[in-house]
Recover the amino acids of this structure.
């Protein structure tokens, strides 16, 4: 185990020392029983924080920490990118968060389409789509509605605004993803053995810590909801190792200053009103039953897929890219033959190298050497 590095000018070693000691003690109990454990951090923000603060280096030898499918851009399927590019080429104004621009589709990216003359607007908030729709009533405007439970409510509120203002030129290309069904799919993967989940912070603020209870009870896997600070993450890892060492898998919420057991009930009601669970395609993973959200029939007028008759399914992937295995925690990014040679943040081959929350980008930035 190493020492916690200087963080933003402060040496947190003293604050982290008790947690490191407890992590070491629980890991030693597991090692005494001949046990190696594999923990997964599910959230892309956790992945970045773990890389940035070198937290992997602090873990005992018998504890492996792997990254999961918690980067929303990374899991967006090629077929969806292809559909967005097709819309942009059809004189539609496509509005999206910046990370999506350079994600490769089957043949090119939204950035390339923009360079070729398509209108693709980068937004810091969904409100930007509303502003453009108001200002340019003669143009159709499509917002790329991707992300996990965290981003759904602000995006979906565009529909209420468009209806209220009778804007007939605003719609959504919807590919929202849900975290708990993805965890179930990972547990069912015979090539992947996970011993516990470090559950996401922001997503859990919406769905609530109790959303993971079925995973704990059905599979006897410990789950801990943790915040993003280095000490939050160490606290979460300590909780997972303690439950494993004591052979008492349970659910803990170590981020109770933000996450409630029931989550954000207003946001959940909004989601329930407009959306329903649908099967969803995850990049490199495939279709996971009921792992996405689609618009309910009564809101289909705002569904860009229907309005413009485009399909978000299918699409070709670069077979050399191993994003699917990275997103499932089967391999670490350096195990991909393209890592840091052919595939870099400047010239990404796969989505995991594009996004600021992607595992490959995190390894490239913080652990390459
Ligand atoms: S290094 Fe690049 S090509 Fe390899 S898995 Fe990561 S994103 Fe895909």
């Amino acid at each position: 185990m190493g020492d916690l590095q200087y963080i933003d000018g402060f040496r947190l070693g003293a604050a982290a020392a008790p947690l490191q000691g407890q992590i070491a003690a629980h890991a030693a109990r597991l090692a005494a029983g001949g046990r190696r454990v594999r923990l997964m951090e599910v959230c892309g923000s956790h992945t970045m924080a773990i890389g940035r603060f070198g937290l992997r280096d602090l873990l005992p030898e018998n504890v492996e920490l792997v990254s999961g499918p918690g980067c929303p851009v990374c899991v967006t399927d090629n077929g969806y990118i292809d559909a967005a590019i097709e819309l942009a080429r059809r004189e539609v104004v496509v509005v999206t968060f910046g990370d999506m621009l350079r994600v490769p589709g089957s043949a090119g990216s939204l950035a390339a389409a923009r360079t070729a003359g398509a209108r693709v607007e980068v937004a810091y908030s969904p409100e930007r789509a509303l502003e453009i729709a108001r200002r340019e009533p003669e143009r159709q405007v499509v917002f790329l509605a991707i992300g996990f439970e965290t981003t759904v409510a602000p995006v979906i509120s565009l529909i209420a605004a468009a209806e209220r203002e009778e804007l007939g030129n605003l719609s959504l290309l919807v590919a929202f993803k849900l975290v708990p069904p993805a965890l179930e799919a990972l547990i069912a993967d015979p090539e992947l053995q996970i011993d516990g989940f470090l559950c996401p912070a922001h997503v859990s603020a919406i769905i609530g810590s109790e959303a993971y209870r079925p995973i704990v009870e059905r599979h006897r896997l410990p789950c801990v909801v943790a915040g993003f600070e280095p000490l939050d993450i160490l606290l979460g890892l300590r909780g997972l190792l303690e439950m494993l060492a004591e052979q008492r898998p349970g659910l803990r919420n170590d981020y109770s200053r933000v996450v409630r057991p029931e989550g954000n009930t207003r946001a959940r009601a909004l989601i329930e009103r407009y959306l329903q669970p649908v099967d969803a395609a995850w990049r490199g993973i495939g279709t996971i039953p009921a792992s996405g959200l689609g618009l309910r029939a009564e809101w289909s007028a705002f569904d860009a897929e229907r309005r413009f008759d485009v399909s978000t399914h299918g699409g070709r992937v670069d077979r050399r890219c191993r994003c699917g295995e990275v997103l499932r925690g089967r391999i670490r990014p350096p195990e991909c033959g393209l890592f840091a040679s052919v595939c870099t943040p400047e010239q990404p081959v796969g989505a995991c190298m594009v996004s600021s929350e992607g595992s490959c980008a995190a390894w490239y930035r913080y652990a390459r050497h």
